[in-house]
């Protein structure tokens, strides 16, 4: 449990600002590259890259277990707003790969889904 040093609104805000990003951050390695997933961006080998909401949601889901295949239906549920069209996953993965500028990071597993390369 984290609490501010002083019981003042300013101290509370500072504590939240300091703690919240660290809780939403996740670091994984893929294809020999260090990927730090942040709020709406990815730090890829030290370079900050903004990522669309759908892409960051998929990347977070895949990063839970790198190397594990995420089925399209499972990934569809992780998209903002849920969705009902499997094509939305394919489009979001394509845009994510384009943003990361390294298509090897997210692999397609034919007839099964996608996974984060290890």
Protein architecture, described:
It contains four helices and seven strands, in the order αββββαβααββ. It is of the alpha+beta class. The chain has a domain at 51-116: Arc Repressor Mutant, subunit A (Orthogonal Bundle). The strands form two sheets. The protein has a four-stranded antiparallel beta sheet. Strands 5-7-6 form a three-stranded antiparallel beta sheet. It is elongated. The mean pLDDT is 88.
Key phrases:
single chain, 118 residues, alpha+beta, Arc Repressor Mutant, subunit A, four-stranded antiparallel sheet, 24% strand
CATH superfamily of the domain at 51-116: Winged helix-like DNA-binding domain superfamily/Winged helix DNA-binding domain
Beta content comes to 15-25%
Average pLDDT, to the nearest integer?
88
For the secondary structure, the number of strands is 7
The radius of gyration is 16 Å
- Kindly, what is the distance between the CA atoms of the first and last residues, rounded to a whole number of angstroms? 33 Å
For the largest beta-sheet, the strand count, sense and barrel status come to: 4 strands, antiparallel
CATH fold label of the domain at 51-116: Arc Repressor Mutant, subunit A
**Which CATH architecture of the domain at 51-116 is right?**
Orthogonal Bundle
């Amino acid at each position: 449990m984290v609490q501010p040093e002083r019981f003042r609104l300013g101290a509370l805000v500072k504590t939240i600002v300091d703690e919240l990003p660290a809780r939403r951050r996740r670091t994984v390695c893929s294809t020999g590259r260090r990927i730090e997933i942040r709020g709406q961006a990815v730090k890829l080998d030290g370079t900050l890259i903004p990522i669309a909401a759908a892409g960051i949601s998929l990347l977070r889901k895949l990063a839970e277990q790198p190397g594990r295949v995420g089925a399209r239906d499972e990934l569809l549920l992780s998209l903002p707003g849920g969705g009902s069209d499997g094509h939305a996953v394919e489009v979001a993965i394509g845009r994510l790969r384009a943003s990361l500028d390294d298509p090897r990071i997210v692999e397609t597993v034919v007839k099964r889904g996608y996974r984060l390369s290890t």
